[in-house]
Structure formats: structure tokens, C-alpha cells
Design a protein that fits this description.
It is built from two helices and 47 strands. With about 550 residues, the chain is mostly beta strands. It folds into four domains: about 130 residues; about 110 residues; about 90 residues, Immunoglobulins (Immunoglobulin-like), CATH 2.60.40.10; about 200 residues, Sandwich (Jelly Rolls). The two termini are about 55 Å apart.
Length: about 550
């Protein structure tokens, strides 16, 4: 706080007693100085032991900085006659030293002012004495106490200055101004945290160091009230202190552990005794809020893991393993990016002649059907429907037909890929899949209804009496090897839209997908050929409706 000891009424008195007036008249090159009084402004006193009894010494110095008049106590300074010149009047604590630092140091005040003595003239000089030292104190937040209770904090400075602030220490210490000051938190076991308070401590300023915690990187905040000369310095101390016994596994290049909206964190704990649960902490790299999750120990090992979800697509995260106050190194990873699959709600359709396309253009530009193989002589087997036949907006309707030239029968179908009729080898007309570089989905869900008709065509597998519908998803790697698959088979008629959910099983979690397809068909075996003929068992009239597909990523 701002502390003023106002030394007032250092007067060159204009009116003198008649006995002194004659002396000034005779000495034309002199003036007269009288020290009248000293006041203490108690309203801004920083400590209770500073009272009006504070002893203030006074020095009058000439241009060579030599003391021409001194008083150990301003009250004892007699009237002074001074030659014409410019002087410095300096007031300071008489019975204290500025060299002492720490809790035992006493506040030391000083101030000065310049005055030009003119012949036969009186002047008034006001001197404001202020604290010539710096004050510093340490306060601990409740969060800091609950986390680090019992640790010792030190304020450190030049010339090996180190002032201990124990757990219950509320006093302020006095230190020399002008030096750099640092706060150090000693956690024990050779672990500590240090941060600069100021690069140059200012006189008459009180630096209040407020210790708090952060689970991210250490922060530093200063607010200044210039009126009372108080600095509030907030030092954010990180809760984690890295330990050689806690090892955070680096998963950023492990495809099996980093997905689109989840990740498997891993690490090891080699502590001889585990007194606290082992946990992981993680956050967005660009964020500030840490999330804590319990770790699961792998049986018979010192290894731990935890699944964290939901995460944001294409986002960098950082994480570390922790047990009590021991932590491992902070590591980072970036989740897979999201790539949209168009028209999963089947609201977009384009018609060209008798053919329908589930795309914004009249082509198999993303979704494809076998319509072009039957529309030469039949109506399209895959069409959009709306109103009561759809769940929302529009839906896809697929119907199995027989009496198809050359192939005999054709199932209604809708798939991601391409279709180009091959009369010589009809089974080669279909090419499943499109390039895909997005996050790996874990589920395909949606709604369907189905009319299953009696088998009236085909011989394989030879065990069906009524038709079955089929919905599936498949993913391949860059080498064309299947890495993920899931399917739904419906063997009964369903009159109303019913939800389905397909779990995608990954046979290889070390590779990312390069190609993806989703397939829906009104007859499960409608794509089985021998030569140009369909041999799969199908039931003419079997109809599948699908709507509102959705991919899940955690």
C-alpha cells in the first residue's frame, strides 16, 4: 500500500523576530531556514507499528552532495542560516537500515526535495517521504492448499535472497527495491516450480503473490492499482510434476488408438506403491479445460489405458498419465478428419427418362443403382418415394422383379459405387465403393421397412422359402484389402419404418480406409450369377424401403 510520511513546513520564514532581522540585513548573501513540523498520514500506513512516533532524520546537502547540516531527529533541528545556493533537503528513517531484508526488516522511508536559497528571501519546501523498499507477501488459494498443502514457497532475489513463506505465513516481507524477484514453490523430492514476479521491484510497491493451480501450462497474471501502489500477482502453478515412474505412451502415430471421435490413451505406472487411482488427463491442445478419466490396468502388467470420447474431428489433443502428484510427459495426437457422405437421408434424386438417380445430377456420380440394366424393357427397380411411403422427406424404394431379359431376375438395389451394364458378364456391371479418406465409422444406422415375398426364382443357397433384404457397409485400405465390414439381414416383413443399427467390425485397425461402400438391396442373393443368369434365390415383389442413414464415429 502507498505509505506517505509528509514532511511539511520546511520554511524559509519571511517574518523573523527583530533580534534576527538585523543579522539578515547585515549578511546580504544569506537566507534563513526553519523546520516547522512532520506529519504521518495514518490512513495509508501499511503496518500497525508505523506511528506518529516515527523518527525522521534530516540532511541538508550542498551542490557537492556534502552534508552542511544534519539532525538525527527533525524536532531537534535549530534555525538555520544558509549561504545563497541550491540545496537538497533529504529526510529519512533515522533508526533503521535499508539493507535488512525479510520478515525482520523494518520499513525504511525517505524523500527529498531541492530548494534554491536567495538572499533575504524565504521559501517553502514540502517533502514527501515514501517507503524506499519493496513489500512482498504470498497468499494461497483453497485449490492450491488442497493440492499442495504443506509445501514451502520462497521469494528469491539478488545476492542469494531467499525468504520462506510457510503454509500459514501471512506476513509481508521487506526487500530492496530495484532487484528481480521470483516465487519458487518447493514440492519436495527435488521437484519445484519457479516464476518471475517482476524484473525490477519498485520502491513503495506491495507485490501480493496469489498462488493458484492450473492443470495446463503455468500462467501469469498481474493487475495493478496505481493509486495505492499495489501489484496483485497471480501465479498459476501446474498440478502435474513429471515423474520418471509415470510414462505416457505416444499414440499419435498408432492408427489403432486414434480415431475420428475417440482415442485409446495408454501409459505405464512404475511406482513402488500406488496410493491414488491412476488416471489420464486430456484436453484440446488449443483449449484450457482438462478432463480427467480413470485408467484401467492391463491384468498382470503395469500398463494402463482409457478410452476417451466424444472428441472433435481433425483436432489436436494433449494428454498425460497421472497418479497422485506424479505425472508422465505430456503427449499429443490429432483425431481423424470428418468427410461427409452425400445424400444419406435419400432426399436428393434426379430423373432422366425411365431412370432415377440418387444424386443431384442424372448420373451414377456417387450413389448408383442397377436401373439402367432393366429400364430398356422394364420400369426402374429403385425409385424415390415420399409422403406416407417415406419417414422424412424422401426415401429409397427397391423392388425385386422377374422376367428380365437375359438375367432372368433383378433385385432393387442402391449402393455407393458405379454401374455400367456388361451384357457379356452382367455380374461385372457393378463396381462397389468410392474413394474415402475420412474418419473410420463404427456404426451405420437408419430406418427400413420390408415386404418379404415367397421365393420364386433361383437355386442358391437353396435353403430359403421367403426372401431376405440386406444392408451392409464395407471399407478397404489403399491396397484394396477389406479392413471393415458390417451388415443387417431382414428375413421378415416389417410394415412400419423400424430402426436398424450395424456395428462395423474392423479386421485390421492398423490401417486407415481408402475406399468405402454402403449397399442396400431388396433381395440378399440377387447379385449371385452364373454366366449371364441370376442363380441367387429371390422372390418377385419383395420390396425394401430405407431412409435416414447415419454413420456414427464413437
Amino acid at each position: 500500500m502507498k505509505t506517505n510520511i509528509l514532511v511539511t513546513s520546511l520554511f524559509l520564514l519571511a517574518g523573523l523576530a527583530s533580534s534576527c532581522q538585523s543579522e539578515i540585513d547585515e549578511a546580504k548573501g544569506y537566507g534563513y531556514l526553519q523546520l516547522s513540523s512532520v506529519d504521518v498520514n495514518k490512513s495509508v500506513i501499511t503496518r500497525a507499528d508505523i506511528t506518529a512516533s516515527e523518527t525522521i532524520a534530516v540532511d541538508i546537502l550542498n551542490a557537492s552532495n556534502a552534508v552542511v547540516q544534519h539532525a538525527d531527529d527533525w524536532k531537534n533541528l535549530d534555525d538555520v542560516i544558509l549561504p545563497v545556493a541550491t540545496y537538497t533537503v533529504k529526510a529519512y528513517s533515522a533508526d533503521k537500515t535499508i539493507e535488512t531484508q525479510g520478515f525482520d526488516a523494518q520499513p525504511y522511508y525517505e524523500g527529498q526535495s531541492s530548494v534554491a536559497i536567495e538572499a533575504n528571501k524565504a521559501k517553502t519546501v514540502n517533502i514527501t517521504c515514501k517507503l524506499a523498499q519493496t513489500m512482498v507477501s504470498v497468499n494461497r488459494s483453497e485449490s492450491f492448499e488442497s493440492t499442495f498443502g504443506g509445501c514451502t514457497c520462497y521469494v528469491e532475489g539478488a545476492d542469494a535472497l531467499s525468504i520462506p513463506f510457510g503454509e500459514n505465513e501471512t506476513r509481508a516481507a521487506y526487500v530492496k527495491a530495484g532487484q528481480a524477484l521470483t516465487v519458487k514453490v518447493d514440492f519436495g523430492n527435488g521437484k519445484s516450480f519457479s516464476q518471475e514476479i517482476t524484473s525490477k521491484a519498485e520502491a513503495a510497491y506491495h507485490y501480493k503473490v496469489n498462488l493458484d493451480i492450473t492443470e495446463g501450462n503455468a500462467g501469469f497474471d498481474i493487475s495493478v492499482d496505481q493509486t495505492i501502489h499495489q501489484y496483485d500477482v497471480t501465479v498459476m502453478v501446474p498440478t502435474k510434476q513429471e515423474s520418471a515412474d509415470m510414462v505416457t505412451s505416444d499414440i499419435k502415430n498408432d492408427v489403432s488408438k486414434v480415431w475420428g471421435q475417440f482415442a485409446y490413451l495408454s501409459g505405464s505406472c512404475n511406482l513402488a506403491e500406488i496410493t491414488s487411482p491412476v488416471q489420464f488427463r486430456y484436453k484440446k491442445k488449443a483449449g484450457t479445460e482438462w478432463i480427467t478419466v480413470e485408467a484401467v490396468q492391463e491384468e498382470g502388467t503395469k500398463n494402463y489405458s482409457a478410452k476417451v470420447a466424444p472428441l472433435d474431428f481433425g483436432t489436436a489433443y494433449e494428454y498425460y498419465i497421472v497418479c497422485g502428484d506424479k505425472t508422465g510427459e505430456t503427449c499429443t495426437f490429432t483425431t481423424e478428419s470428418y468427410v461427409e457422405i452425400p445424400n444419406l437421408n435419400f432426399d436428393t434424386w434426379t430423373q432422366s427418362g425411365k431412370n432415377w438417380y440418387a444424386n443431384a445430377d442424372a448420373s451414377d456420380s456417387y450413389w448408383a443403382t442397377g436401373n439402367s440394366g432393366v429400364t430398356l424393357i422394364k420400369d426402374a427397380t429403385t425409385v424415390p418415394v415420399e409422403g406416407s411411403e417415406a419417414r422424412n422427406g424422401k426415401a429409397a424404394k427397391m423392388t425385386t422383379i422377374d422376367g428380365v431379359m437375359m438375367v432372368g431376375a433383378a433385385a432393387g438395389n442402391l449402393f455407393i459405387g458405379t454401374y455400367k451394364t456388361n451384357m457379356l458378364n452382367p455380374s461385372a456391371s457393378v463396381s462397389f465403393g468410392r474413394d474415402y479418406a475420412g474418419a473410420r465409422p463404427v456404426k451405420l444406422s437408419g430406418y427400413y421397412k420390408y415386404t418379404s415375398c415367397a421365393i420364386n426364382y433361383g437355386s442358391k443357397p437353396g435353403t430359403l422359402t421367403t426372401d431376405e433384404c440386406n444392408i451392409y457397409i464395407r471399407l478397404w485400405d489403399a491396397n484394396g484389402e477389406e479392413i471393415g465390414f458390417g451388415e443387417f439381414v431382414g428375413s421378415e416383413s416389417v410394415d412400419a419404418y423400424t430402426p436398424f443399427e450395424i456395428t462395423i467390425n474392423y479386421s485390421n485397425t492398423q490401417k486407415r480406409p481408402a475406399k468405402l461402400t454402403i449397399v442396400a438391396t431388396s433381395s440378399r442373393y440377387g447379385g449371385d450369377f452364373e454366366g449371364s443368369k441370376v442363380v441367387g434365390q429371390v422372390g418377385a415383389g419383395s420390396t425394401l424401403w430405407v431412409d435416414d442413414f447415419e454413420l456414427s464415429y464413437y
